[in-house]
């Protein structure tokens, strides 16, 4: 490889304080600078930065991305088919064995001044005018309509959204679905704290673990502000000889999304984006994706989707803008995202300073103890 | 935005989707605000998910938790020190992950402190002519650093790749910096310790023993020069993470840790050296214990919300034990440390135990603050709201990410 050692994240490029109080000099350790993270890591004339724009407003929760990711990357299964009791999400969270994670959030957003209560029934929008339905079903539907009020579960309708009788009105129940993934931060906590250089910045500006270098110290796990990376648990390959038990690939090593580094090298789209049937996961150049995301969020807000917001995209934000960012329909914590993540190394210069003072204090105390003890 | 501003959203999870679980029906909507996922502290992800999914269940479920009233009463008293923060999370699941570290790491923190402090004491004893204190401190430092390194290697996911730590030097990684600090410290400490051990042996090894004797002082002084780094960098190792209770302690933790190191190594010196030589060890120990107790108290004030975990459960018990043992050890040192060998030894043991409890308590606080997403979400949400309010006050048009319009009331 032609890049300099990616370990050297230090150096100039202190950024101007945006007025938020947490940027500026403290960021000197980690900021990637104007040329982008790959150039900062020592790549000469790197290709344009690649990333994901995950538009959750059009995610249908099909989990094709989860499956495609596992299949392409050979990621082992997480558990033994547990039911987590959290809607249709039985995966739970990103981790060593989950590099894409589809979240299901069920929300009742109350309508002002109305208390209709919750009754599960057939949603009014489930059957459109042009769909032929047998008499039996219509009859039972009519009865259920008579018995109890109906509530829209947010199930996909067969008709156009505008054709439904209450088009334009918010129903009081909705599903939010989102495909979570490693953010490939500009200022990546995992990369900063990795003591072996196993985590490195690729020429595409992404952050990837070198499986054969990582010694499983686990520091990156605590370093990530998003709880993405984790150490893989499993049967390790024996140092010598053969094991009778089945061996888990890369057991004991930190694992996370690579943004399909191997596919990028062959000019292929990452597996999850390729498999996404609604283009909720969009892959491309980060600059272009940012423009697309800004237009999309403006369109949604203009259309009255007032919760629409971009997440982790802002280059002035606490991780310096992520390579993989999101359009959310509600606040980040609803999706299990930290609302205001800041890379932990932003505070590191101050921490070293305090540690230095403490060390000096210890030395002084020892000296004083002997001088005082001489009395 | 008031605290109530983030009540929306997640608390309804599971109710509508799981009508079977949701026995109590919609009337529970308001009751549930206190039971928003995550507000009840830690627990496994599965347990949390269960709690969330069953958010609507009420009296008579016999699940050991009882109804809302019972649950409130049974909540640990410590957790009520800070009023319940209402917040939203994804099924009460943690936002960040805890480092996959086990008991080897707090053991290492403890041993590293002993090693660092003891090397300083050994150097001082060497220079001021206190052979017994020097011997005890040098051997103690060598033993402690050996256990430290073994613990560090054992805790790796792939211990056989330990040397990969030496591929790079990264100032952004306290673990990398620490590895190099230990690499620089270890040889000096081990040579000085070996020289003392060699003197205790009944036989001499000719030139080798002479060489060891000659090298002991420079080696010991070299180790002592790096020893303060050994004792203090471990605080940065913990605080430079996204683990709330660790990161929030980043201002004070280095001082707590060096105080703890001084108390422990001073205690070890009192244990191993006769009373007439252990004067500096006593002063060192008392100063360390006082600094540790004072700064730890201050740390709990400055940490904010995550200081809660230092008072609850296992970390709470450890921190209480740490304070009691450290205070008792320091008091014993002052009262009887100069007069009684037994009293000095007991005081030293108490200080050592107190230091161990500090390290394990601070360490355990980390995972505890991760398991409850409250400690990650609430401070960040408050920070974000403050920033948005400041932006609004400044009349700036808020930009992109920072501008979701006000939601329904």
TrEMBL record, chain A:
Record's keyword terms, sorted: 4Fe-4S, Iron, Iron-sulfur, Membrane, Metal-binding, Repeat, Transmembrane, Transmembrane helix
Listed Gene3D superfamilies: 3.30.70.20
Region annotation (Disordered) ranges: 1-45
Segments crossing the lipid bilayer: 351-371
PROSITE patterns referenced in this protein's UniProt entry, alphabetically: 4FE4S_FER_1 (PS00198), 4FE4S_FER_2 (PS51379)
Location of the protein in the cell: Cell envelope
Chief location category: other
Entry keyword Membrane: yes
UniProt-listed PANTHER family: FORMATE DEHYDROGENASE, NITRATE-INDUCIBLE, IRON-SULFUR SUBUNIT (PTHR43545:SF6)
Protein name per the record: Formate dehydrogenase iron-sulfur subunit
Domain 4Fe-4S ferredoxin-type stretches: 50-80, 173-204, 205-234
Organism: Microlunatus capsulatus
Keyword Transmembrane helix: yes
Any Pfam family: Fer4_11
Biased composition (Low complexity): 32-45
From TrEMBL, chain B:
Lineage of the species this protein comes from: Bacteria, Bacillati, Actinomycetota, Actinomycetes, Propionibacteriales
Stated name of the protein: Formate-dependent nitrite reductase membrane component NrfD
Region Disordered, annotated ranges: 1-81, 379-409
Compartmental location: Cell membrane
Superkingdom of source: Bacteria
Basic and acidic residues bias locations: 1-10
Membrane spanning residue stretches: 107-125, 137-156, 177-201, 221-241, 253-273
Keyword entries, A-Z: Cell membrane, Membrane, Transmembrane, Transmembrane helix
């Amino acid at each position: 490889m032609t890049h300099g050692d990616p370990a050297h994240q230090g150096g100039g490029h202190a950024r101007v304080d945006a007025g938020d109080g947490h940027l500026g000099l403290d960021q000197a350790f980690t900021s990637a600078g104007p040329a982008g993270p790959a150039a900062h890591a020592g790549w000469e004339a790197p290709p344009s930065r690649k990333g994901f724009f995950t538009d959750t407003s059009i995610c249908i929760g099909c989990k094709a991305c989860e499956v495609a990711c596992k299949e392409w990357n050979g990621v082992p299964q997480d558990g033994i088919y547990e039911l987590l009791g959290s809607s249709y999400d039985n995966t739970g969270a990103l981790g060593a064995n989950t590099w894409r994670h589809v979240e299901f959030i069920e929300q009742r957003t109350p309508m002002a001044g109305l208390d209709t209560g919750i009754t599960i029934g057939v949603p009014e929008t489930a059957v459109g005018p042009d769909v032929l339905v047998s008499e039996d079903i219509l009859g039972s539907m009519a009865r259920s309509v008579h018995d109890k009020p109906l509530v829209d579960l947010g199930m996909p309708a067969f008709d156009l959204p505008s054709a439904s009788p209450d088009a334009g009105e918010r129903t009081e129940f909705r599903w939010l679905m989102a495909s979570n993934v490693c953010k490939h931060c500009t200022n990546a906590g995992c990369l900063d704290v990795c003591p072996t250089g196993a985590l490195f910045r690729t020429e595409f500006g992404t952050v990837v673990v070198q499986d054969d270098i990582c010694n499983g110290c686990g520091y990156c796990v605590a370093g990530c502000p998003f709880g993405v990376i984790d150490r893989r648990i499993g049967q390790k390959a024996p140092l010598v000889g053969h094991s009778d038990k089945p061996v888990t690939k890369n057991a004991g090593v930190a694992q996370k999304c690579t943004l399909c580094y191997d596919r990028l090298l062959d000019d292929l789209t990452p597996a999850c984006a390729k498999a996404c049937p609604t283009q909720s996961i969009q892959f491309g150049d980060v600059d272009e994706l940012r423009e697309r995301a800004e237009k999309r969020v403006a369109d949604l807000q203009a259309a009255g989707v007032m919760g629409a917001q971009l997440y982790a995209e802002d280059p002035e934000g606490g991780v310096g803008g992520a390579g993989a960012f999101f359009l959310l329909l509600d606040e980040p914590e609803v999706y299990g995202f930290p609302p205001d993540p800041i890379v932990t190394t932003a505070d590191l210069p101050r921490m070293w300073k305090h540690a230095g003072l403490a060390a000096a204090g210890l030395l002084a105390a020892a000296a004083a103890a002997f001088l005082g003890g001489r009395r | 935005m008031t605290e109530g501003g983030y009540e929306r959203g997640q608390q309804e999870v599971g109710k509508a989707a799981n009508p079977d679980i949701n026995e109590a029906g919609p009337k529970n909507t308001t009751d549930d605000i206190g039971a928003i996922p995550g507000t009840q502290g830690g627990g496994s992800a599965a347990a949390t998910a269960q709690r969330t999914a069953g958010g609507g269940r009420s009296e008579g479920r016999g699940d050991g938790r009882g109804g809302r009233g019972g649950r409130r009463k049974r909540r640990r008293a410590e957790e009520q020190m800070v009023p319940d923060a209402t917040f939203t999370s994804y099924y009460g699941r943690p936002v960040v992950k805890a480092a996959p570290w086990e008991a080897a790491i707090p053991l290492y923190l403890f041993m590293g402190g002993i090693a660092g402090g003891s090397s300083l004491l050994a150097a001082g004893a060497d220079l001021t002519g206190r052979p017994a204190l020097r011997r005890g401190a040098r051997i103690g430092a060598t033993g402690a650093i050996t256990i430290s390194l073994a613990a560090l290697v054992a805790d790796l996911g792939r211990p056989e790749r330990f040397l990969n730590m030496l591929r790079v030097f990264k100032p952004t990684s306290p673990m990398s910096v620490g590895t190099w600090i230990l690499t620089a410290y270890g040889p000096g400490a081990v040579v000085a310790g070996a020289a003392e051990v060699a003197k205790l042996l009944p036989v001499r090894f000719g030139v080798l023993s002479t060489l060891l004797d000659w090298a002991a002082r420079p080696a010991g002084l070299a180790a002592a020069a790096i020893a303060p780094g050994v004792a203090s960098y471990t605080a940065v190792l913990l605080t430079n993470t996204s683990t709330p209770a660790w990161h929030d302690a980043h201002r004070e933790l280095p001082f707590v840790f060096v105080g703890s190191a001084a108390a422990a190594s001073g205690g070890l010196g009192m244990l191993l050296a006769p009373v007439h030589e252990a004067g500096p060890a006593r002063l060192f120990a008392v100063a360390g214990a006082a600094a540790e107790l004072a700064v730890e108290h201050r740390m709990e004030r400055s940490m904010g919300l995550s200081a809660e975990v230092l008072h609850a459960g296992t970390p709470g018990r450890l921190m209480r034990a740490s304070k009691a043992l450290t205070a008792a050890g320091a008091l014993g040192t002052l009262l009887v440390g100069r007069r009684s060998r037994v009293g000095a030894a007991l005081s030293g043991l108490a200080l050592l135990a107190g230091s161990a409890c500090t390290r394990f308590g601070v360490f355990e606080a980390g995972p505890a603050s991760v398991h409850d997403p409250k400690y990650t979400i609430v401070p960040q949400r408050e920070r974000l709201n403050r920033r948005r309010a400041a932006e609004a006050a400044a009349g700036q048009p808020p930009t992109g990410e920072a501008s979701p319009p006000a939601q329904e009331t």
